[in-house]
Every structure is written in structure tokens, then in C-alpha cells.
Amino acid sequence: MLRILRLFTRALRLRCPNCGGGGIFKSWFHMRERCPTCGLPLEREESEDYFLGGMMLNIIVVELAFVFGLILWGVLAWPHIPWDLFENVGVPFMIIAPILFYPLSKTLWLAFDLVFRPARPEELRQADDAREVHLPKTRASNG
User: Cα(121)–Cα(141) distance, rounded to whole angstroms?
Assistant: First the structure.
């Protein structure tokens, strides 16, 4: 149970759920191929289709937030619900929220995947081998 909590805590901080290392995002919408710290492939085995679950997670969370917000708004403002104000706030929320939640949905999906399919040593070892090949030569080794 502690392992699962650790995976999701790291994911909520937009870090690698496996090791907690940072720098897994190139930009807001693009993840690196591997974690720079532990070498875990961030798109595990399914390549192009890996983050479909993350995108579904994004849609579900944002829509549930919208529905619960609507219900809470209605209960608190009853009987005089300001529908115009709700429309002016709700529509932008439904456009902006999925964009803001996007990186978080990817790290949470990766954490969810690691709960059921923990990182195998072969996955991490491949990254170590790749790093050794690309290490720059030092002055001592040149001479």
C-alpha cells in the first residue's frame, strides 16, 4: 500500500512515478522517451496508444469536476441560480481544464500502470546501457 501511495504522490508532483526524478517533460504536451534519472520508458510497450488511458482519465476527471461543480452551484444558489454566470464560467472551464490537467493525467496514468506492471530490471538496464554509449570522453581518457 505504501508503494502505491508513493507512486501516486510522485505522479501528482509531475515526477517519474518509478524513481521520483524530475525532468520527464520536454514541454507541457510532450514527455521524454525515458526518465532521465532511472531510465524507465515513459511510454511502456504500447508506444503510440499507451496514453489513451491517460487521455480518458483527463476527460473523466474534468467532466466529473464540471458535474459536481454544477450540482454544488445549484445547491448553494437555490432557488435563484445565475445560469448566465454559470455559462460564462462553465464553458471556459471545460476548455481550459483539460489543457491544465493534461501532464498530470499522463503521470497519473503511468503510476496506475506501474501499480499493475512494476518496472522490470531489463527496462531500466537498457537505459543504463544507452547512457554509457553516449557518455562524453574525459580529458584523462583522451590522452
Answer: 30
